[in-house]
Write a structure and sequence with these properties.
The protein is of the alpha/beta class. 34% of the residues lie in helices and 18% in strands.
């Protein structure tokens, strides 16, 4: 028998359709299943992780950070986009605050320091040394600007020394006429390409300042950052960027309602419009139970107003739920009710379908309607992602990212170990902060009367500090590529 021949033990090598039908009525989750290895003509490093959430939104890493207030704000979303994934900004904040968080991501150009530390001509080198010490800066070169922000010179690190402490910055700086700059308008849609071209044409120069039409300082490029980004551009997994070179970012919305339960359309439209205006790449209408008339109405309303916006809706656990939301206008549907480590929906409400079976059922509906599905919850290791991606287009992670330094919240030390707070959006604390609407409760009731009037569907916990997002995603992506290699 050749390596490509049909296995002799067919009952143990079933397709998804035959496997889940054979298992019925037993429903399965990730730990119940192991994938069978197949003949492979590819090495793990040759596999590609590209996916898409709509015809307008593609990613080079099929991982989304969860819209949880202890997981995703701007810092996490920036890190996710730089690694090829997507961050989904949570909604436990005011609408204006959420728009600002998305705006921070969209305006972040990795490699361009948009607000560089700067000094003034009348300061002394001693004062600059104090600034470096107080802020723990690892650099000693500073642009020099006047009181109007106009560039007047560059203070080189070679003169920021104790021996020159009594000299002024004006005496020690390189004057404006000798400083290399580039006009902000010359960056166009490819700032990194423009900076790379400059450094290739000016050997020995390692700083490039960006100025506007009035010669005000707008940013700073360093050669080391550009060299690193050039290497990044040659990598298989590229950062998630839109057509204007901005990092991609998503945002979750709670559907605003009036006192009679009807959608507050004016409020909803204004929020969607503000996100659309700053280039938000995806909006998730985030609820615990997405297969409902109210969520369907909200999706239809959003789709009618913004025909080109990538809309994510959920959560559901059935093919019928996916088909319903697809018919309403969703591009992608989140699948999962209760599988998360800090979600207690299955205990409190007694509902939910084990996650792998839920994904299978959802995938049948998605295939009928041509939409994507996102596996949301229950993933604790890279092997679970491999299993999820046999049925889904992407995964949404909370717990695996909640311990990263880029997650919101302070780092706590307990008995010599470091932790970050992690809580379900159905926890009492999160609902009091604003997420009660996700679970069908009134926000004002949650904030005032508390647990006597609402049922929590999540808990609070601590996540041991797990390092940076880059480290975590590199390990997860490597595991997924290994799984793809085994599966051929």
């Amino acid at each position: 028998m050749s390596s490509k021949s049909k296995p002799a033990i067919d009952p143990f090598y079933l397709s998804a359709d035959k496997f889940f039908q054979a298992a019925a009525p037993t429903a399965l989750t990730y730990d119940d299943v192991s994938l069978a290895t197949l003949y492979s003509a590819v090495l793990p490093r040759q596999t590609r992780l590209d996916t898409s959430l709509s015809d307008r939104l593609s990613l080079s890493l099929p991982i989304i950070s969860a819209d949880m207030d202890t997981v995703t704000e701007a810092r996490m979303a920036i890190a996710m986009a730089l690694q090829g994934g997507l961050g989904m900004i949570h909604y436990n904040m005011t609408q204006a605050e959420q728009v600002r968080e998305v705006e921070r991501v969209k305006n972040h150009i990795h490699g361009l320091i948009q607000d560089p530390a700067k000094v003034h001509p009348n300061q002394t080198i001693a004062e600059v040394l104090k600034i470096i010490e107080d802020n723990h800066y690892s650099f000693r070169t500073f642009p020099v600007v006047n009181e109007k922000g106009v560039l007047v010179g560059l203070l080189s690190g070679r003169v920021v020394k104790e021996r020159y402490r009594n000299h002024t910055v004006a005496e020690a700086m390189t004057p404006r006429k000798d400083v290399f700059t580039i006009a902000q308008k010359a960056l166009k849609k490819d700032p990194i390409g423009a900076a790379d071209k400059f450094f290739n044409e000016h050997l020995g120069i390692n700083k490039l300042l960006v100025v506007d039409n009035a010669d005000r300082l707008c940013g700073l490029f360093t050669l080391s950052d550009i060299e690193r980004l050039s290497d990044e551009a040659r990598a298989d997994r590229k950062p998630s960027r839109d057509a204007d070179f901005h990092l991609r970012c998503g945002a979750a919305l709670a559907i605003p309602r009036k006192s009679d339960g009807q959608i507050d359309k004016d409020n909803f439209a204004a929020h969607l419009g503000a996100l659309s205006a700053i280039g938000c790449d995806a909006v998730a209408l985030s609820t615990a139970h997405g297969h409902t008339a109210g969520v369907g109405d909200a999706v239809r309303f959003a789709r009618k107003l913004f025909k080109d916006m990538t809309l994510i809706a959920g959560n559901v656990t059935s093919g019928a739920g996916v088909e319903y939301l697809a018919d309403c206008g969703a591009d992608a549907v989140k699948v999962g009710q209760g599988p998360g480590s800090i979600c207690t929906t299955r205990v409190v409400a007694g509902v939910g379908v084990p996650q792998l079976t839920a994904l299978y059922l959802a995938s049948k509906g998605a295939a009928k309607k041509g939409v994507r599905i996102i596996a949301d919850g229950g993933i604790t290791k890279s092997g679970d992602i491999v299993k999820a991606l046999t049925l889904a287009d992407a995964v949404m992670l909370g717990g695996l990212l909640g311990g990263c330094r880029e997650a919101p919240g302070d780092i706590m030390e307990i008995n010599g170990k470091f932790y970050k707070q992690y809580r379900g959006m159905g926890s009492m604390a999160a609902m009091k902060a604003g997420s009660a609407a996700r679970y069908g409760h009134d926000v004002k009731t949650a904030q005032t009367t508390g647990p006597a009037k609402i049922a929590a569907e999540g808990v609070e916990a601590l996540k041991e500090l797990s390092g940076s997002v880059v480290d975590v995603l590199t390990q997860l992506a490597g595991g997924v590529q290994s799984g793809m290699g085994y599966l051929g």
